[in-house]
């Protein structure tokens, strides 16, 4: 069959007014209290979500920015406190390492290494101290010297550092929100932490504040405070995969992550005039830490000596994050427009339940969908513009019955088949005989 024959046959079988029928919106008021109450409840629920939660609670009227900044730390020995090594159990009984040497007491400069790190610090808790001597036959930059032959170990000591938890940390941090600050260089979107109020939260205790910090004073707290906020002790057994049985975090080293989160959204509505910050402290699981520090007596001497300090300790890493907001009409309009789309969803849900799920779905479907008369018939009868004749036509035809249109289309197909000319030659038939038979049928 050629395309032309297919095209002609298709339109003979299908009414163009049905194929290209136009579906339009029509408001039908279904007087059913249950449908109306369900729809009203859906609208009220969505309205509450848009206004109460998205706009007010989540502050959908604000544009948010992420702060960036710097953190500087320092460490100092406790004031007016004498550290006595024998007062600490791990100095009296260093098990499971009985070969440990007596504890030592270092000041803050020795305890802290590396020095002057940005956004991090390390306080040493255990040291493996090795004295090594250079092999005179293996001088520096000698290409024939193997690494293992460069230095020879003379002596080695292992010891804990006493009272590390009582040392005081001082944290100085600052931040700014670039996208806001360059448009409004006020203290609302930038500043030093010393000018802000803050707090430290205790891990695992929902909403429990461990420490408070007031504006105008630097942030100072002991290492023990930091460990308490993280919910860990240096004398707990280490869970690092490389630790020995019974080894503690004091022995292996530990990593503590401190997140400083800034916000000016700590009010029910609007923003605060100055940002506030919160410390969130946690331990990095199954992770130990150490750093090696070599000290040389005379590096250029062929027989020089060096002392290697293998330091294990508390590694504290600071991360700055958070969100600061300011009023934005664009954000408000975007959230409001998204909410309006949800209101439309309420109508779609109620319509779907009404015509497919509820008990009287057939009645609901009958009232919701309306079928018009075939406008080809109306134009043929010249009544398309006469409202009274249209009403009379509707009274004599069941326009809401879908089967009416199926029956009408079948009638059109039969009519089309009777009117279609038969190509007798294509069937190899005697034209004269067919003509006689057709005359007889007529």
Question: What global shape is seen?
Answer: elongated
Structural class: alpha+beta
Largest sheet: 9 strands, mixed
Helix segment tally:
14
Identify the quaternary structure here: single chain
* Order of H and E elements: HHHEEHHEEEHEEEEHHEEEEHHHHHH
Can I get a quick summary?
The protein is built from 14 helices and 13 strands. It is an alpha+beta fold and 442 residues long.
How would you describe what is shown here?
The chain is of the alpha+beta class and about 450 residues long. It contains 14 helices and 13 strands. It has helices at about 5-15, 15-20, 35-55, 90, 110, 180, 225-230, 250, 330-355, 360-370, 375-380, 385-395, 400-420, 430-440; strands at about 60-65, 70-75, 120-135, 150-160, 170-175, 190, 200, 210-215, 220, 255-265, 275-285, 290-295, 305-325. Strands 1, 3, 4, 7, 8, 10, 11, 12 and 13 form a nine-stranded mixed sheet that branches. A hairpin with an 8-residue loop joins strand 12 and strand 13. Helix 3 (about 35-55) runs antiparallel to helix 9 and helix 9 (about 330-355) crosses helix 10. Residues about 420-440 have low confidence and may be disordered.
